[in-house]
Specification:
By secondary structure, this protein is mainly alpha-helical. It has one domain. It has six helices and two strands; from the N terminus they run H-H-H-E-E-H-H-H. It has a two-stranded antiparallel ribbon.
Length: 240
């Protein structure tokens, strides 16, 4: 248990530190592009800076996956640690933004959450809920495995987690796709090979409503997977 506690403390510290680094980058970007405070519509970003930002986000995910692979004892733990670090990183990203910039004003403030493969937007509360759900999943896997229960993700759980995650992710992309569909003239997606500035295609886009029903459906599917994992673990105890 001591080894597990030490491991989780360092994983948490690593994730919080990554959250601060993410915040630092955003502070710099907002000084450059939003000197009067972040708000929609998004300011087009120079193509060379956009390329770096796109690759930086990809590098962040690789780092989080890497720490999961290094720290986990088996496939289920590797996945659980990856999503745990992702969740802690995401929560503390907003904590540090609040401390340094006084932003977001509330949990319902809109933010651009990710840009791979297209911009994700939504109220800050939504990714925070997702992060708490992911921490719950990690706690379930790690706790039951350390107690000697067979808490390994089966096909059923993988299907539920992947399906729920895709629904949640699509809820973040939906408003962007709706805007492009209604703007025939600029209906194209920025890519690494684009010659125009990032966000130029949504230079007038201001999010109006978030599909909380779709988000809730995705969350329910993920939570169903967690419940399935716990029920299966309680029925099958193995030797530690």
């Amino acid at each position: 248990m001591k080894s597990l506690t030490t491991r989780m403390i360092w994983l948490t510290a690593f994730s919080i530190a990554m959250g601060f680094l993410e915040t630092a980058v955003v502070v710099y970007l907002r000084k450059l592009y939003y000197p009067h405070g972040f708000q929609f519509p998004l300011v087009p970003i120079d193509n060379d800076i956009a390329m770096v930002e796109f690759l930086r986000e990809a590098a962040t995910i690789i780092m989080l996956v890497g720490i999961g692979i290094i720290a986990g004892k088996n496939t289920s733990q590797k996945f659980a640690i990856f999503i745990y670090c992702f969740a802690v990183w995401d929560i503390f990203y907003y904590v540090f933004l609040k401390l340094l910039l006084g932003w977001p004003e509330s949990l319902f403030t809109w933010d651009i959450l990710f840009i791979i493969p297209v911009p994700w937007v939504g109220p800050v509360l939504a990714p925070c809920i997702v992060s708490l759900t992911l921490i719950t999943l990690t706690a379930s896997v790690i706790y039951f495995q350390e107690k000697g229960y067979h808490a390994h993700l089966k096909v059923r759980e993988w299907v539920l987690f992947i399906t729920g995650s895709l629904v949640v992710i699509f809820s973040f992309m939906l408003d962007y796709f709706k805007y492009l569909a209604n703007d025939i003239v600029n209906s194209h997606v920025w890519t690494l090979s684009s010659k125009q500035d990032m966000f130029a295609e949504i230079a007038h886009y201001v999010p109006a409503s978030y599909n909380w029903w779709m988000f809730a459906a995705g969350e329910i599917i993920i939570i169903s997977g967690i419940i399935s994992l716990i029920r299966h673990a309680l029925k099958h105890k193995t030797e530690v």
